[in-house]
Amino acid sequence: MGNEKVRCLIIGSGPAGYTAAIYTSRANINPVLYEGIQPGGQLTVTTEVENFPGYPEGVAGQQLMDDLRKQAMRFGADIRTGIITSVDLSAPPYKAVVDGDKVIETQTLIIATGAAAKYLGLADEQKYAGMGVSACATCDGFFYRRKVVAVVGGGDTACEEALYLSSLASKVYLIVRKDHLRASKVMQKRVSDTPNIQILFEHNAVGLYGENGVEGVNLVKRKGEADEERVSVAIDGFFLAIGHTPNSGIFKQWLDTDGTGYIKTLPGSPLTKLPGVFAAGDVADPHYRQAVTAAASGCMAAIEADHYLLGEQ
Ligand code: NDP
After folding, report:
1. Does the pTM exceed 0.85?
2. Domains of the chain with bracketed CATH
3. pLDDT tens readout for residues 204-242
4. I want to staple 298 with a disulfide (CB 3.0 to 4.6 A). Which of 9, 34, 38, 280 is the partner?
């Protein structure tokens, strides 16, 4: 059996991928979209999205993604379950391997694989994986009702996770390495107005302890300073919220990436250095990383794919 041939392959199912699917379907390009490891992307594990235009009361992340998916399907996008495990972008038509097996040949490729949560790199994060360590409060917070948890990070994600957990856990420590939060002012205020969140500024987590799961975290206060101090805090759950790494591994051989792994595109566009290959959303955006900017870049990628295909005819 020969390889399946398509005109447009979209990899990823966050706001960028689904929006690209909406636009390419409406342009009659018959896109095929592979959803990847986390169908719906990062927003499916967030709580309320308050800053996506058009939702004055906010919308649940999962709901927003379900709606985008339905919208893409309404116009005929072929949305499939599966993971693209490798690609060959040496020359068009480009090839993508699904689940290490089936090969798809595509004239255009829209990479919208997003980003994944970062870990500190402590051996204990591995040791206690699934036993008290998590990078997703909305996924795992339920297990910590009336317990004590810590969230690492000082950005909007950390504040959001801490706020979410504060409604379940009895106490939330927010472990921040600097003496200030990076989060937006509105999030900072919400955190400081929440009585059961305690911020530990200038603390670095260096290890975890516990017999059959996390029972506490070892911290260094004012690391590297003359008054450096070691402290241990009893906790039941340890949540990471220190940012994300772009999911660009399988493309690095073929495309330019920056030091963190973000795919480089022509500034202000989804164009990569390869004709017919476009990158949209968080995988190519070290700066804005918002659902609405991801959706917008998915739209741009779709329009560029359409132009490219017209030029090929
Ligand atoms: P950010 O990059 O904004 O913040 C990461 C945080 O983790 C920083 O406080 C950083 O510390 C800290 N950090 C990073 N590495 C380490 C480490 N090794 N040890 C300890 N702390 C560390 O990531 P976010 O995921 O919070 O946000 C990403 C983007 O998404 C932002 O633009 C944000 O505004 C947006 N966002 C918006 C939301 C909303 O509007 N509702 C919700 C969530 C995210 P330091 O400050 O010292 O560098």
Report:
1. no
2. 3-116+244-312 (3.50.50.60), 119-240 (3.50.50.60)
3. 999 999 999 999 999 999 999 999 999 999 999 999 999
4. 280
